[in-house]
């Protein structure tokens, strides 16, 4: 019997398709507590690949990994007023430990600024202690009311970078470096293009002077905030008394940054590239880049499959031979198609006699025949082409779904129809921002970088800045 994929059509019911793909491809499962998620090995393997790419970039910058406790004494959150107000609705708080009521409640970290900066105040005394650059790979908890696998869960995994600097210029350079690093990761590894820009004051990180964001677009025309990088100014330094003595002996408050990327990125990957048959994984992120399938369960064929796999593995490719007994070749075709493996190689007696293998691409479905002795070179080229093709498709979708609009009626028409990114002038008023959201469900996603003459899309006031708007997850 063939492997039965019971997937709704992506174009007809994106949400049902998304959940079905995650569960059936064994990326994740639902946890027993509301809003929690279990990473299955296949899904966690993708996160490990993301970690390897990003961790290498972080360390090249001179940032060091560390780990801070997940329990934060409640009084630390109250040291920065905007910060605690921003996170209060999402906090999980421990009030009992060891069967006894705690003298002070402990907050399960929603992010680590407060517990880290309380410590940084002890570590930073002199300009010689700067820059202090720390990264954490950890879990955080935010009590979400509406949860969605990978995209919005009560507990999620991420990295959070935190740096302390002697000057604002140094801090700003780090903010932009982090966002450039994320952009390169998304484009080069995820094959996901997006827009970089400054968040509005109403949408920026609680306690930050400025937030940069990378906004990607999902198939139903909604934006996904894919990562952020924050200029914290001296706000937290003043709240936590992070001061240093300058070379001329003057006490100064430090300048700080924080920046992060989470497992939400995997949700964007699934939505952006998948099709009605399941996942389509970019080769650079695929836990299995090539699956080799023996056409028949004969020893000669299976041995040959393993030899081919060993040759490719020596070249650095991630390869799996599926010689599981009791499953038809059709079953295996469908299973690995659902799991999004970029290349499938079929091996039978005829292929071995001819010395030519049939290779199927997951992204296009195209099949090519390649000589066994030319396999490593050809595989490398095919994987490179698949990576480029997925990026080109996502780029084309982003561009075709971005529209410049100049009237409020035009804005509402686009938002009520196909959604997407709308580039419009906005005066910066929170009243206009709130009215736009109330009437269209669209929010300011980021400043587009364009400064020119125009009028606010909502109130008609003259302004210079064009912003990207979209409905969002």
Description:
With 473 residues, this protein is of the alpha+beta class. It has three domains: 14-273, 2-Layer Sandwich (BirA Bifunctional Protein, domain 2), CATH 3.30.930.10; 290-390, 3-Layer(aba) Sandwich (Rossmann fold); 402-470, 2-Layer Sandwich (Translation Initiation Factor IF3). 36% of the residues lie in helices and 29% in strands. It contains 14 helices and 23 strands. The protein has helices at 14-24, 41-60, 74-77, 81-87, 113-123, 168-190, 235-240, 264-273, 299-314, 329-338, 349-354, 375-400, 408-416, 430-440, and strands at residues 28-30, 37-39, 64-65, 71-73, 92-97, 100-108, 132-141, 155-165, 195-198, 210-217, 223-233, 243-245, 251-253, 255-262, 290-294, 319-321, 343-347, 356-361, 367-371, 402-404, 421-425, 443-455, 462-470. The strands form six sheets. It has a seven-stranded mixed beta sheet, sandwiched between helices. A five-stranded mixed beta sheet has the order 16-15-17-18-19, with helices on both faces. Strand 5 (92-97) and strand 6 (100-108) form a beta hairpin. Helix 2 runs antiparallel to helix 6. The mean pLDDT is 96.
What is the element layout, followed by pairings?
Blueprint: H1 14-24, E1 28-30, E2 37-39, H2 41-60, E3 64-65, E4 71-73, H3 74-77, H4 81-87, E5 92-97, E6 100-108, H5 113-123, E7 132-141, E8 155-165, H6 168-190, E9 195-198, E10 210-217, E11 223-233, H7 235-240, E12 243-245, E13 251-253, E14 255-262, H8 264-273, E15 290-294, H9 299-314, E16 319-321, H10 329-338, E17 343-347, H11 349-354, E18 356-361, E19 367-371, H12 375-400, E20 402-404, H13 408-416, E21 421-425, H14 430-440, E22 443-455, E23 462-470
Parallel strand pairs: 3-7, 15-16, 15-17, 20-21
Antiparallel strand pairs: 1-2, 4-6, 5-6, 7-8, 8-14, 9-10, 10-11, 11-14, 12-13, 17-18, 18-19, 21-23, 22-23
């Amino acid at each position: 019997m063939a492997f039965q994929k019971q997937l709704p059509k992506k174009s007809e019911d994106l949400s049902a398709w998304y959940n079905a793909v995650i569960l059936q491809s064994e990326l994740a499962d639902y946890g027993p507590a509301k809003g929690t998620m279990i990473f299955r090995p296949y899904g966690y393997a993708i996160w490990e690949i993301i970690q390897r790419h990003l961790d290498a970039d972080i360390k090249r910058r001179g940032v060091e990994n560390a780990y801070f406790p997940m329990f934060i004494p409640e009084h630390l959150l109250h040291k920065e007023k905007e910060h605690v107000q921003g996170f209060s609705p999402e906090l999980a708080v421990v009030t009992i430990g060891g069967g006894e009521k705690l003298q002070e409640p402990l907050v399960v970290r929603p992010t680590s600024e407060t517990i880290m900066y309380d410590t940084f105040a002890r570590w930073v005394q002199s300009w010689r202690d700067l820059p202090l650059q720390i990264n954490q790979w950890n879990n955080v908890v935010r009590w979400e009311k509406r949860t969605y696998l990978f995209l919005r869960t009560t507990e999620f995994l991420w990295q959070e970078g935190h740096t302390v600097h002697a000057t604002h210029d140094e801090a700003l350079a780090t903010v932009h470096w982090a966002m450039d690093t994320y952009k390169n990761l998304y484009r080069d590894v995820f094959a996901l293009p997006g827009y970089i820009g400054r968040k509005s004051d109403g949408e920026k990180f609680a306690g930050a002077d400025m937030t940069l964001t990378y906004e990607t677009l999902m198939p139903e025309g909604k934006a996904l905030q894919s990562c952020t990088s924050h200029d914290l100014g001296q706000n937290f330094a003043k709240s936590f008394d992070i001061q240093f003595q300058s070379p001329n002996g003057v006490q100064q408050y430090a300048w700080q940054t924080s920046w992060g990327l989470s497992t939400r990125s995997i949700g964007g990957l699934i939505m952006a590239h998948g099709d009605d048959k399941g996942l389509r994984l970019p080769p650079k992120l695929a836990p299995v880049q090539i699956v080799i399938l023996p056409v028949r369960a004969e020893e000669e064929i299976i041995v040959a499959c393993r030899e081919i796999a060993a040759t490719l593995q020596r070249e650095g490719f991630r390869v799996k031979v599926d010689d599981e007994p009791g499953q038809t070749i059709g079953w295996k075709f469908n299973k690995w198609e659902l799991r999004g493996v970029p290349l499938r190689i079929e091996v039978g007696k005829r292929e071995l006699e001819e010395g030519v293998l049939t290779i199927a691409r997951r992204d296009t479905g195209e099949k090519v025949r390649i000589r066994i002795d030319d396999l490593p070179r050809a595989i490398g080229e095919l994987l490179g082409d698949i990576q480029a093709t997925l990026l080109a498709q996502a780029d084309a979708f982003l561009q075709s779904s971005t529209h410049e609009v100049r009237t409020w009626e035009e804005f509402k028409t686009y938002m009520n129809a196909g959604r997407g990114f709308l580039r419009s002038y906005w005066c910066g008023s929170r009243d206009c921002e709130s009215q736009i959201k109330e009437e269209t469900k669209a929010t300011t996603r980021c400043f587009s970088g364009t400064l020119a003459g125009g009028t606010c899309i909502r109130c008609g006031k003259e302004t210079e800045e064009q912003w990207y708007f979209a409905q969002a997850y």
